[in-house]
## 1
Amino acid sequence: EIKKANAERELTLEARRRLKEERLALESNTDGQENSVLARAPKKKKAKHPIQPSASSGITRQVEAGCNVKLDGQGTVGTVLEVSGKNAIVAFGNIKTTVKTERLTVTDAKPKEPKKSGISMATIDAGHQRQLQFKHEIDVRGFRADEAVQAVTYFIDDAIRFNAPRVRILHGTGTGVLRQVIRDYLSTVPGVMSSRDEDVRFGGAGITVVELQ
């Protein structure tokens, strides 16, 4: 009975109480009349709360709002939010989808708690704002070599993240040191396809044009 009740607390307690009564009755039987003791055993009582058949019992339970379900026998458990005709809206974690009810199986299993994202809305908004303000060129003229490389590093990272196809780096001609260290750095970045001097009409060797993947 405990197995049939799927270890439901009230039914389990009732079964254990009856087992205890049987054991005490057998222990107190000193005249060897076990058959009479068994004859006095209480008859099986109807459960006060009907047991809901599970999917494993072979009995199909109706899909309705609020119940937990599995899709086509898969392991992921979702919760039915709404049923409309032969379709149901089911939440699997943070994802909501419309599914044919015939593909759903009601289960007593509980859905896993959705993992909370470590990224706050403030961070997302800040990133979006940064993308809107992103400019496709940077001016590092007058910078020391190490300062220029650091600034270009951040600039190229943002350009790749925001899917910019092409950017320009204004470093001037001067002694050619800035141009060289920047080109050396660009050659190590996987997202950079090529780098070249700007057209002479728009700055020539004083500007590096970077093509991005």
## 2
Amino acid sequence: MKRLNEDARELYFEAIFQTIKDQQKAQFREKYLELHPTDQVELFQTLFTEKRPYVYDYLSAEEFADIFQGLDVDTQKLVVSELDKDYAAEMFNHMQADDAADFFSEINEPHAKEILKTMDKVEADEVIELLSYPTETAGAIMTKEFISIKATDTASSVMDHLRQMGPDAETIYYLYVINEKDKLVGVISLRDLIVAPLEEQIVNIMSTQVVSIEAHTDQEEVAKLIKDYDFLAAPVVTSTNELIGIVTVDDVMDVMEEETDEDFGEFTATKGATDVNISSFTAAKKRSPWIILLMFFGLITAGVIGQFEETLEEIVLLAVFIPLIMDSAGNTGTQSLAVMVRSLATGTFEKKGLMHTVKREFGTGLMLGLICAIVLLIIVPFIYGSFLLAFIVGISLFLTLSIATIIGSVVPVIINKLNLDPAIASGPFITTVNDILGLFIYFTIATSLLHYL
């Protein structure tokens, strides 16, 4: 199994395409199965509809299962519609239960039930169990392919057991020790097992300090735990400590990618619309609520400007700096928002506390505001010939940036306390709020000093 560089891969792919064109089954199997799994998936995705049936014919259902697991869900749905019913069932029998459950959760229930009925009962029951857990929990993302052992087993017998069961397990780097009631009582690493005397009992080797995850734990907490402890896998247990599965680091990587996409969608007010494969209508439908809400906030911004219409009429030059005030306030607030959301996501907020984080951001805002004010006090008089105008804009920006950082850091904390995703305090929302605040400060100061201008 080899991973090729770009040029070699293209040449190798061409050779495989030729075996399909010439219907050379043996040559296709030899060349295709020698590829790295990632390259196998990539090559399959490049095949036209009329060529894919050759792959189904040339590969066994077990061999194709590894390829199917690497496809995106839309391609998986297309492939299943092309497969023979028995071939598809056999393929799902050889897939990891969690990967199969991920697919079934994306298709309609009648179709899922139809496929599950044709699968082996043991394999189907494992998938059904995973589907029974709420989405985005440890139970929903765990795998059932793990190895458990007894405390009374010897190192030698466990090694024999590994040779037999290891190929079908998701990972064998950690072995979980259970008692006669299937309750988790210990864990042993593969390294400790290998170096132990052959006749040593597991009870004398295992660690009883086991970090486990309850099945209904949120997947984001699961990812954080595995990251914090630097685990390759973690056991999943019921409320009575019965071992029912494991969550592996590759599952966590998928979770982190999913959570990042979700936070990005919340942060940019595009939740559910970041997938380029969805239609324009669907994207517009998902993005329109925020756009409409922000439009009404825009009316408030216009109202603030309208309240100071007389000030603007007397000193029209003040209008020149409106974009500067709005942009600076919005950008600074969004930066603080990003810092706080990240702090909440990684757990550093809990370690440092609210006051430390807000104080840090407020101090940052003060320094940013001071730097910007000094720059304006130097530049504006040269361009517009007014030191007082430079003072008004400078002090307005100083106050605005200082307060904007507080708003950007406090709002996501409040939302988090309400048990909501802090990322919903999106960038556009914070930007608009700080725009309104910045304009109010700017025109209030300008109006109070109007008779000096």
## 3
Amino acid sequence: MIVIKVGGSAGINYDLVCDDIALLVKEGQPLVLVHGGSHETNVLSEKLGKPPRFLTSPQGFTSRYTDAETLDIFAMVYAGKMNTRIVERLQKRGVNAIGLSGLDGRLLEGPRKASVRAVVDGRQVLVRDDFTGKVERVNVALLRLLLDHGYTPVVSPPACSTAGEAINVDGDRAAAMIAAALGAKQLIILSNVPGLLRDFPDERTLIPRLAYGELEQALSFAEGRMKKKVLGASEAIAGGVSQVIFADARITRPVFHAMNGAGTVIER
């Protein structure tokens, strides 16, 4: 079992990712695909006159400010356009994919944060109207039911709060929870860079291997969205996943190359 997370940044080649997934599924490799949609969400937000706003935590992690209106836009892109189009790509390639948001069947569940602490103009503030949370439970029975009947799950946020609300959650950390819950051997996180770079955006500074104990130090130089990916990797390995690989979603056979050590390989 492997779990693949493909990001939502500009430059990702979803056709190449789906080509590779189709080959793996036809070879009998069970897998779950988790996807993002950040770039498309930003584009739609601008078109709708609701420019994206981001919050930076005191620890340096960046997240999307998600009020009720932004949550609607987020759902339109993630559980709507992105999920549908990825499922369509896989169906065209002969994969019986089924699209799910984390809200469906409480697939991804956790508490909504009562408030979010952020740094604004050098001051720490509490943001209380934010629909975000953290995945604490995965409906493994639902995923196994689908996998056992020949379906390939394609999963996206939003998740389901413990009170039944739709909440924005980080896709990389959600994928880490899914991988741990399924007892996956590998979690492959694909994005628009070849892996973890010591000096972003210089791709010549790719770090080919990292030990689990080095992940905390990696947070000090990981840039932007890569910080959350590093945190997700740490949580996945702590949850029992043998190996996490950060790899390039812009190349031919991205999953195959990642499974065979391309990118940044992290293991205990």
## 4
Amino acid sequence: MCSYRLHAEYADPTPLKVRIDTHEHYSERPDDPIADVLTALDLTGTEDLADIGCGDARFLAHLASRGHQGALVGMDTSPAMVAAANAVPRVRGVFGSADRIPFDDNSFDVLTARHMLYHVPNPVAALREFRRTTKPGGTVAVVVNHPGTHPHTTELVAAHAATYGLDVADAVTVDSDTLPALMSEVFGKVRIQRSDNALVFDTPDPLVRFAEALFTFYGVTPNHPRRQVILNDLREDVEDWFTHHPGRTWRDPKGYIVATAVVDHQGSAPSASM
């Protein structure tokens, strides 16, 4: 993704919160990626843990509220997200990028990177940084979406953005199909936990809110002069869809994987042939 769009998207945590809340309340089956990550990690509560691309820090807040005793670090490229991490008691927010983590080798027992690796220009470089900063015997957990997740809503937003001459979002190169091989290249053995689900809307309003929370990824920035016009047009289309499909729901497939790897004790990355 272009850096200006990424910075605009995460300058304000509100769209991220809308997306997370939408997945929480409008998923076809219970959707709890935090629980899935914690299941994959099986923490004791004493680990020094870094969450790379920490977003609004709710994952770290969850750990802190449950008495995690190890150090908790949230790193992000957005000052607003770093501030959100620093606002959580016992959490340290740090500004930094995934491909140049500002910590020494072997700093953490656990490193998590949730729903962020597809924003990184060089994901393999980031994975090598994850390995470098995690102690031998420590665990790295990476979460990415399935390819083309919630395609109907993204196509809707992309079409309305394109109507006003705006670029669509860049192609995602890291997803549940491509991540296992990338992680195997860096870590060797990788364990995969898969979640398949869908967003389901039976009224227009929550779908419109979710679509608007995707706007910046398609060039409709918060200060774009036609933003309200684009939103009004999109709302009209959504309302028309529900009017012409009585009794039907808007169902959008989605899902993700949690990929975990243990850093070996030799300290050197496996060869690319592994």
